[in-house]
Write a structure and sequence with these properties.
Blueprint lengths: L10 H11 L4 H8 L3 H9 L6 H11 L3 H10 L17 H13 L5 E4 L5 E4 L4 H4 L13 H6 L11 H19 L2 H11 L19 E5 L2 E10 L7 H5 L1 E7 L2 H8 L4
Antiparallel strand pairs: 1-2, 1-5, 3-4, 4-5
Helix pairs in contact: 1-3, 2-3, 9-10
InterPro entries: Cro/C1-type_HTH (IPR001387), Lambda_DNA-bd_dom_sf (IPR010982), MLTR_LBD (IPR041413)
GO molecular function: DNA binding
Protein name: Transcriptional regulator, contains XRE-family HTH domain
């Protein structure tokens, strides 16, 4: 199944916006794509009509997300190149099985699968460590994990190093917005910036090599390190936009508490 994306801007305008977002000159892009700067200029101004192959080549050099590559092709008068399937669709069986295996193997530590907007697609049972006590309206699908993390009725009151963790999440979000130009993410960033915590100390664990998540539970404080896993060489829009966020114990007491099933 291919998602049809309405192209509302001329293809040349879209190319120019992506080039400027990547902070490249026309000469820079031309050099990477092995064409002349004059040709890039003609494509952006509409004096030349790009071929399908040229749009795909420029998209690759500009590292345009697959969803937006389809938009670019539509704007140029071509059919989308990348399909978009649901995880429940037959062609996605191997991907769905891999996700289920990762989530299950990661127990007893928490792990979640999120889409491009940080909405939770799936998670293992240990995620309850984080969601217990959160307001029900934050747990209604689609659950946005950034909103859940930083909302004053979500995880935020129990995040010991809230200032540091908040800064870390907002920095990641800002980078994603700069990379994709996604208006939904920009609106989400505006919303999150209004939540309490901006004045919280950010110098917790100055000597840490990575930013930990320190989380208070009835059984004591837990410390986690997080990693992000994405699928390599995706050729499907959905697959390209999935990420698995896994949390690992940052110290022996946390590992022991998880093994004992303490929340």
């Amino acid at each position: 199944m291919t998602t049809l994306i309405e192209a509302t801007q001329p293809v040349g305008t879209l190319l120019r916006r992506w080039r400027e977002r990547r902070r490249l000159s026309q000469l820079d892009l031309a050099s990477r794509a092995e064409v002349s700067a004059r040709h890039v200029s003609f494509l952006e101004t509409g004096r030349s009509r790009p071929t399908r192959a040229m749009l795909l080549k420029l998209s690759e050099q500009l590292e345009i997300p697959l969803r937006e590559r389809n938009s670019l092709l539509l704007a140029g008068g071509y059919a989308p190149a990348y399909p978009e399937h649901q995880l429940s669709d037959v062609p996605m069986a191997a991907v769905a099985d891999a996700i289920a295996a990762i989530l299950g193997a990661h127990l007893p530590a928490p792990a979640v699968v999120v889409d491009r907007h940080w909405n939770m697609i799936d998670g293992n049972s240990a995620v309850a460590t984080f969601t217990e006590g959160c307001a029900l309206h934050l747990l209604e699908p689609p659950v946005n994990v950034l909103r859940l993390s930083l909302h004053p009725e979500g995880m935020a009151p129990r995040i010991v190093n809230l200032g540091q963790w908040r800064s870390h999440l907002l920095h990641r979000l800002d980078h994603q917005i700069a990379t994709t130009g996604d208006p939904f993410l920009a609106a989400l960033a505006d919303e999150l910036s209004t939540y309490p915590g901006a004045d919280a100390p950010t110098d917790h664990d100055k000597d840490a090599l990575v930013v930990p998540l320190r989380f208070a539970t009835p059984g004591g404080e837990l410390a986690f390190l997080s990693t992000t896993t994405v699928f390599g060489t995706p050729m499907d829009v959905t697959v390209a936009e999935l990420a698995i966020e896994t949390f690992y114990p940052a110290d022996a007491p946390t590992a022991a508490a998880l093994a004992e099933g303490v929340r």
